[in-house]
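Can anyone check this?
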Amino acid sequence: MPENDSNFVLIEEKSIIHPQTGQTITVYVYNDIKAGRKITVTRPKHKALDKDKEPAMDVAGTGKTTAASTEGKSQEASEYATNPVESKVYSVMTTISGEDGDTYEDKGATVHLGKAPRSLFNAWTLHRFANRTGQANFTNTDTLGTDYNKPVMFDGGGKSNPENNNKLNPTARNIVEYANVNGKECFSYSYSDFIQMEHYGQISNDYLITLRRFAYPVPDDLLTPIQHGTDAKEIDTSQPDLARAVTWLSPALGNNLEEILKFKTALKWTKAESSIQEAASQTKDRGTMGDKVASSPLASSIESGLGGFTAAQAQQLKKHGNVDYGKATYPNKVFGPLNIIDNVLARDKGLEFDQEFKLSFHYDLKSYKGTSPKVAFMDTLSNVLALTFNNAPFWGGATRFSGNGHSGKPFGDSAMLAKGDYAGYIGSIADTLSGMGGNFMDQLKKTASNVKNKEGINKIMGDSSILENIVGGGLMKMLGGPGGGDVIKAFLTGDPTGQWHVTIGNPMNPIIVCGNLCLQESNVSFEGPLGFEGFPTKMKVEITLKPGRPRDKTEIESMFNAGRGRMYLQPEWMEEGEGLNVDSMINVNAYGGKSGDNIKNAPYMSKLSDMSAG
């Protein structure tokens, strides 16, 4: 019996890639009203009813974490340009040698991140998103616009990509196996990370939080922990973690997503106010003779009389010459106009960044085959302490000495005095004086011989350090001696100082990764009831962390970019129409002309591009 096409309502007609043949085919999606289901067919149902498009389903807040396979589905063209643009190339270790016009420049090594598509939302920059499975740190492989028209898991899932199905399904087993295959020493997971957790299996691992502690300061990227040295060579900074713990994003656990992922930035400004500058008249320099006249009552009286001043006037000038009578008589007087704007904000040095957050970990006393639950729980407690605290010996203090600048050494052997050998110490004083006396006589004989033989002044002075100090010291006292350099404090490098690292989200597709964290405090508490072996069955650990130093815009981007650097890159300026998109950056006037005269000035445009990136 032929099927009644009137029972079907056409929902969608689309083109897809056939999974077996690879050819493009057209399929039709219908809603079977009678059966209450949707069907997909390759031939149209001519008597089917048409239907307006249904509104898109709002899945916000539904908590769905599963992803459908993208195999066989059409891939529309990306909004990002298919032709990427070369990103800016930076030179390091550039040296210039030679002189007198014959110079040679060694350009050294170059660092760049390849080509990337233009940003959709900022015409001055390129957009390079590297938080994609399979992309390594510092790679200069070109990023294409077509890379952005598919899920960040690269090729999605489906039968042709079963490995990506595992990445989309972050079970403990898939996470452990992924770390074993793709991770280095610093990116590892174990089944034991999960089994002691109270809420294991209750919350999707898309909400997983992993906290690690390392022996040395750690950057953001753990999968490909590579840094560039001063010579632009790549340095592998892998190191195994000392301890780790996992928990999940959930308000019920005390791990609110909005609290953990938030951060605050600020620019520093200082208020500059205009004011009336007060300038006092300076005492006239009258020389030595004038000072003598001023210091002599008789001479100053004669001078005042010659100047036409009475005794009272002269006395008043001497006592009150610098008095501000306006302020003295009217202390509440306002100087200057009233209706004015008298302050501006001026940029001050420094950027502010705040990202302090707290993580809560919940452990449950569990039984294991052939193992005491209490023993395993104490093992867990020790791991928590290894993650959050240190061993330490008692230290009673120390003494540091600094010199007083004298060139002479102490008389005698102080070691003998310390041991209580007073006779030996007195003898060492005599030896010191005897040695100094012998040296004095030797130098005196050399000086007399040089004078007798009519040697030059350099010879006479050079053979006698005593005479050199006497004459040289006197000359330096009169003319000035060498100045000692100020003690310079060590410069800060900005390298990571924090030894903690947190990964938020599915470790195979993280929301953010954040290294260089400093542990502020940890709070451990126990809850009942008591277990079989008379120990509390639940343990809660709260850990507060903050960054080792403020982050700038680039480093904030890097957290959301799997720790692989900034997402906005500057284009390399070559010629108009290349690198920087002049037409999209400069407004045109009413007659179609550019509103600026510097659009062909490469340094000017390149500088604006740099400024747009912060």
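Reply from J.R.: I decoded it. The CA atoms of residues 472 and 478 lie 10 Å apart.
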